């Protein structure tokens, strides 16, 4: 049975990393680049998603990992909220905003599945999810 041996192999972490890079690219452009408060908030939220996945994976137990995944999911929600602010302020287009929102919703779904998997326990007692799961 194939397993995930490092957090960098998790699809949800890879997607979170892509979103962080996209957020950085978007926030470097005017007029977004002048809103320092929103830049800080949205970057921190996006970074929190991928960081909590990594930190949780490296934790000592499935229960701890599940808690970090829950925090990552909350950060994805925070980031979505800030995307709405970005759209409302005209910093990003509705189309670009919708793309980001859809990707963040997808991450939230993957994190929910991962958290459920971790809370229900893996078959061998490790925090190495089977690849058949969508995360």
Structural overview:
Helices cover 69% and strands 0% of the residues. By secondary structure, the protein is mainly alpha-helical. Helix 3 (62-88) runs antiparallel to helix 4. The chain is elongated and about 45 Å long.
List the helices and strands and how they pair.
Blueprint: H1 11-27, H2 36-57, H3 62-88, H4 94-120
- Beta-strand segment tally: 0
Using only C-alpha atoms, the radius of gyration works out to 16 Å
- Tell me, rounded to a whole number, the average pLDDT: 90
List the helices and strands in order: HHHH
User: Which strand-content bin applies to the residues?
Assistant: under 5%
Number of helices: 4
CATH topology (fold) name:
de novo design (two linked rop proteins)
Bulk shape: elongated
The CATH superfamily is identified as: 23S rRNA-intervening sequence
Second rung of CATH, namely the architecture: Up-down Bundle
Q: Regions with pLDDT < 50 over 5+ consecutive residues?
A: 129-133
Share of helix among residues?
55-70%
Structure classification: mainly alpha
């Amino acid at each position: 049975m194939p397993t995930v041996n490092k957090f960098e192999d998790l699809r949800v972490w890879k997607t979170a990393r892509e979103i962080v890079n996209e957020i950085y690219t978007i926030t470097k452009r005017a007029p977004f680049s002048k809103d320092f408060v929103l830049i800080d908030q949205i970057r921190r939220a996006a970074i929190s998603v991928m960081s909590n996945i990594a930190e949780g994976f490296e934790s000592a137990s499935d229960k701890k990992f599940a808690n970090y995944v829950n925090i990552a999911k909350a950060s994805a929600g925070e980031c979505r909220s800030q995307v709405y602010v970005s759209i409302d302020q005209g910093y990003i287009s509705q189309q670009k905003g919708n793309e980001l929102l859809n990707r963040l919703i997808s991450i939230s779904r993957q994190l929910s599945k991962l958290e459920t998997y971790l809370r229900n326990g893996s078959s061998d007692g490790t925090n190495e999810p089977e690849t058949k799961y969508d995360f």
